[in-house]
Design goal:
The protein is mainly α and 450 residues long. It contains 18 helices and three strands. It has a three-stranded antiparallel sheet with strand order 1-2-3. The longest helix is centred in the middle third of the chain and has 20 residues.
Length: 450
């Protein structure tokens, strides 16, 4: 007879699974949840099976580089603000991952980052070549309808050694370096890929100097690089130092930082104050702490404020400006960098946005009982079926699709009453991917530290 098979060893008893932690569903966690839905509504390209915003479908599949995000209420893929969005949103995940985890949104957050970084990697078509824009502003803006129905010509604009764009390449390097830190633990091979492209793009930025909006003149109409490229060269170097710990990048950032001062904003265009804040955190040097303190104190205590306490920095995207500063200064306070404690004023900006104001009005669509109903945003203004055109745009009816999680522009002066919920008012009521980035990071900070 066949010998008896060896008895299988008794399996080790399975350890009791750790109980799933309850999700934080407080106000800031809800804000994170909604904000990530907004980014899904902005997706270009072939949508994944797990797409949660169901009224959006595949679009712009014929773009030379499919994917990435539509910029705002339109369908141009502007590379510069897209990259700045991912660096600002990435900063939140690098330093306050705990906020996304507590809100049970870490997987959705990583998808939000990767939707852009996949596009950046594909757009990096040669060591010294990068696709910086797809779609032309005026052709795109002449169309009101769904992205799925677009048939207009979508030209492709790139930067090269002959037509450089140091600001665009270095900002994209910063975004990819931040992404490499986000994916390091969960997806190390993807993190390495992000870092490889970040280093190459930074070299391109540094070696072939030039302002990207001179090389892509159409971008100059909408997203001109007003501050030049030194702030992005410093910012990209700071993020590459964080990702690599290579002192070469830190030295470069420190040298460049002296020319940047403490600009009284932090935006898709100007990262100078972000550089000072991160250098203060990395090096502990007093010179950077002083610049960070000057930035936070000046903006949060000396700028004009509305009656309800919104810091007013600029009429375009006033809430985005306030949120970006709020996040950078909450981070700076958390790291012990500030002589003056402005954390209450910083947090106030986020609370104002979420309806802690005299009108009890939330500027984040879908949050609370009262929020914008008519954002300047094409796809959400369209019915699910049937005609969508300029008559739709001009209608006074609310957008039929609720653009959950979008942060609108906000008041256009230091007067709470200067906000208008009108599709025709693209100053107060347009939405853009970069409007949400610092806000989402601030919400993650508040969930992580509360």
């Amino acid at each position: 007879p066949e010998p008896e098979p060896e008895p299988e060893p008794e399996p080790e008893p399975e350890p009791e699974p750790e109980p799933e932690p309850e999700c934080d569903n407080g106000k800031y966690a809800k804000a994170i949840h909604l904000s990530l839905l907004f980014y899904e509504a902005q997706r270009s390209g072939k949508l994944p099976a797990n797409q949660r915003v169901k009224w959006r479908k595949d679009s712009a599949l014929d773009d030379e580089i499919p994917g990435g995000y539509y910029d705002a209420g339109d369908y141009v893929k502007f590379g510069f603000p897209m990259a700045a969005t991912i660096t600002m949103a990435g900063w939140g995940g690098v330093d306050y991952k705990k906020g996304f985890v507590k809100a049970c949104e870490w997987e959705n957050y990583k998808s939000m980052i990767k939707w852009a970084t996949d596009y950046f990697i594909a757009a990096h078509t040669g060591p010294n070549e990068f696709v910086g824009q797809i779609g032309k502003g005026d052709i795109d803006h002449a169309y009101w309808g769904r992205p799925e129905d677009m048939r207009m010509h979508r030209p492709v604009y790139r930067i090269t050694a002959q037509r450089p764009g140091s600001d665009l390449a270095a900002e994209t390097a910063a975004a990819l370096a931040a992404a490499s830190l986000i994916f390091k633990k969960d997806n190390p091979s993807y993190a390495a890929k992000c870092l490889k492209h970040a280093k190459e793009l930074y070299n391109f930025a540094d070696k072939y100097r030039g302002v990207y909006s001179n090389s892509i003149p159409d971008a100059a109409i909408y997203y001109k690089s007003w501050s030049g490229y030194n702030d992005e060269l410093a910012w990209g170097a700071v993020w590459l130092y964080r990702a690599t710990q290579n002192k070469m990048y830190l030295n470069k950032a420190e040298q460049l930082s002296n020319s940047l001062g403490s600009p009284e904003e932090l935006s898709w265009d100007n990262k100078g104050s972000g550089v000072q804040v991160l250098l203060a955190a990395i090096t502990g040097k007093q010179v950077y702490k002083d610049r960070a303190n000057q930035f936070c104190t000046t903006v949060l205590t000396q700028k004009p404020k509305t009656q309800d306490g919104l810091v007013f920095i600029q009429q375009w995207g006033s809430l985005r400006h306030a949120s970006n500063v709020a996040f950078a200064c909450l981070f700076a306070h958390d790291k012990g960098l500030l002589a003056n404690d402005v954390s209450a004023q910083a947090k106030r900006q986020i609370d104002y946005i979420l309806g802690d104001n005299s009108k009890k009005f939330s500027f984040l669509i879908g949050y609370g009982d009262r929020y914008p109903l008519k954002p300047h945003h094409r796809s959400s203004s369209c019915p699910l079926t049937g005609t969508c055109d300029w008559n739709t745009s001009n209608s006074q009816a609310p957008n039929p699709q609720i653009l959950k999680g979008a942060l609108v522009g906000g008041p256009k002066s230091a007067d709470d009453n200067s906000y208008v919920d009108s599709r025709q008012d693209y100053v107060t009521n347009e939405v853009t991917t970069d409007y949400n980035a610092g806000f989402q990071s601030a919400a993650a900070f508040l969930v992580a530290t509360q």
